[in-house]
# Entry
Amino acid sequence: MPAYHLDPKSRLSLSLRSLFNENVSRFEGTRGPAGAETSSYPQGVENTSSVETIPVLIVASDERTVQKALATTEQSASVLAPGLLSADLNPEGIRCLYPLLGVEVDRIERMVVHRPQLDRALPAAGFVPSPSGESELQPDGSGTLIGIIDTGFDLSHPAFRDRNGHLRVDALLVQEQGRQQQEYSTSDLENAWASGRGPGSDTDGHGTHVASIAGGSPFAGIRGIAPGARFILVKTDFVRIVPAYEWIFRQSRGRPCVVNCSFGHHDGAHDGTSIEELEGPRILSGNGKILVAAAGNSGMAPVHCSGYFDEGRVREFPFSIDPDASVFRLSLWYSNSDEFQIDLISPTGQSVDCPSVDASDVRAQSGTASVHFLHGHYYPSPLIQLQLNIRFPFRGGDPKDYATWRLRVRAHRIVLGRVDTWITNQNSGVFNENPLLHQDCTLLMPATSQSYISVGSYVSAVRWKSDAGEQISPTAVIGKISRFSSKGPTLDGREAPDVCAPGQYLAAALSSQCRRPHERVVSVDRLLVLEGTSMAAPVVSGLISLMLQKKTT
# Structure
């Protein structure tokens, strides 16, 4: 183990250290056998098992030890694969695993919220359908499976049905926060959807559109890339992503399968080392089990700043918060060989000092805003992470509380000198124009993983039909990379994304349960036109299905 990771707390993700900071500090007590911490509560500390649970991923060398420890708190973990578990834990569960950190447990990370990332795709990809919509080329994905993790699916749409009107869906999993997940077989779904609406319905429209691009049956003169494949579907809560694709691969029962992930987030180091980027796909994917991820739509978004520091230099990262946001979050990363002094300056000029590395959290009040700073080592990379949370008691407050904030960074001791920061909850705010604002390194996680095929978008159409008449984009240029498409490299310097595919103004299936602008809908044909790397990723997933039909490994 590297010398810079001596504190067991570094094996808890920083957000977990924040959530359970008071509880953890109370049971950092005497050493037990083999250097382990004793796990009993100190006298006078109340049991906190009634606190709301948090979904986590656990990397462990001994799954049974983890399950045995959690059983003492009447909690449990699911083994996704040897060495990888998922669980919903309260502070008591974290407390009982804390003595195992660095021994049987390598690390524990909170599962974070992902966000969805939203014809002419077939011709652009080299597939020209006949006038009937049937493919003139083989293969068509027969014998393979396409897994889609998304907002839901309108299984009444012909894109999910074969020529005989039967569903091409082998299984559906519905994840809902606070509820037991539900599984449905093909027969369950045939019966439930006989009335036109059933489990896993899609009020957003994103999942139906994405799935039909990857493998939709012919309808309205178009089809998906691999119309011969069958689907395994997950209507997700956008938190339990690793358990979702583990379930898909398990349902595939050894058959070749590609899983499409048209979502992502900026809540991490962007270097491929989080559990969902590293251990999850490394353990669960492999020959005939492929993961595809959308690069993200942050290519033009002011969500990333980066700069180099010399000793003594002071630089600022200015940002503004959306008045409709109740919480603003950003994370900042730098080498653990460097030392910085960091403070936050509010719009009124009030300064809040960041805590030193691995010290207790700092909480402060600035006007109506509550400020929360966390600062600690990151495991397993040699990095320091800072998290800043600014919370408002209600939306639409005094405008001056949301105007320009500044994160001020002063370099004390420099070896590498690079600092990177991302706004981690989308649409809560932006970095203001400044010399450190960068459009590179905007790839979403988990597309930053070496185990996913990451997909950017290029323009394949500039005109489309709609209920409001023909539409045209005045700025898009066919064949050019989409302006919104997130850019690499990753923080550790790898080129990304791996490939770009048609992703701008793609016509695909419209969910009957969603409402979209007339300029994007062809109601009579049940078509919806969208753009985004969310649309490009399933083009690649469909192509991989065709490849897996030819060669399953």
